Amino acid sequence: MAFSVLIVDDSPAMRSFIRRVIDLSGFEVDDCVEAGDGIEALEKLEQRWVDIVLTDINMPNMNGEQLVKEMASHEMLKTVPVVVISTDSTETRIERLMSLGARGYVKKPFLPETLREELERVLEVANA
Amino acid sequence: MPDQAVLANEQQWQEVLLRATEEVMETMFFSTVTSEEEASADREMRSAQLRFKGDPSGIFNVSVSLGSAKQIAANFMGADEPAGLSETEIGDVVGEMANMLCGSVLSGVRSGAHFDLSHPELRAGESEPPADAIRASFELEDGTLRCWLAINP
User: Fold this and answer.
1) Half-sphere exposure in the Cβ direction for B141 (13 Å, CA)
2) Which ipTM score applies to this complex?
3) How far A64 CA lies from chain B's nearest CA (Å)?
4) Of A86, A91, A111, which has the smallest distance from its Cβ to B27's Cβ?
5) For residue range A17-67, what is the model confidence (pLDDT) as tens digits?
6) What does pTM read for this prediction?
7) What CATH architecture applies to the domain A3-126?
8) CB nearest B89 (choices: A13, A86, A89)
9) DSSP B24-55
10) Which listed residue, of A3, A5, B81, B148, carries a Cα 20 to 30 Å from A34's Cα?
11) For chain B, which domains are there?
């Protein structure tokens, strides 16, 4: 089964890297959309449905934490699982993001299989 | 004033800096690095510097030879040829590298502590480290990589 993914990061290089790592990991993607910050991500989500969102935390205009919060309070978007990808993996930060509505967390640096396993875990829980 | 407790653990910082650089460069940038006592600076370097706030606060800097920066950017972005990459793309990748290296070093030394990292500031050339900075030099396939970290400068 193939999934549609939205990658949110202010670095085009990081978006490109994540997209490539997803391909390398063997995780099947049929549609991949990108956004440079939380505001652009919400605009993209209004135009098209995705199965999962991968987001950075530190971004201009609207950061990853605000994006998670906005999605969690939205009638439709709250069902879309969000996985946060960040260098900050402290317990307090992860707990805060999870309490706001994030479903998964991947710490940079990461191996392709780590990303794939987290995406599969989150999607399995979301679709259970 | 530098934090004396932190400086007492300078060797620990040094070890973590070496280990974190090897891990990040191999995992995320598909580049093998070899630790060097003092790698020589290239004529053309690209640097990224960021500030971290927490316990402790400080500055983290990465400088990499232009040739290596191009190759690292190509590896990271999956580009066939480094020649096709723009200066903006190369800078973007060097900034990401600084961000990941700094995050890995801090979590390696202060596991569980929260730090706020500033957006990496890019610059051509190499930034001179403060005298008491913790430094590490690495040889890459076609150039050098130098990192330094200054605590409460």
Assistant:
1) 13
2) 0.83
3) 14
4) A111
5) 999 999 988 889 999 999 999 999 999 999 999 999 999 998 999 999 999
6) 0.88
7) 3-Layer(aba) Sandwich (3.40)
8) A13
9) HHHHHH----EEESSPPPPSSEEEEEEEEESS
10) B81
11) 4-151 (3.40.1550.10)
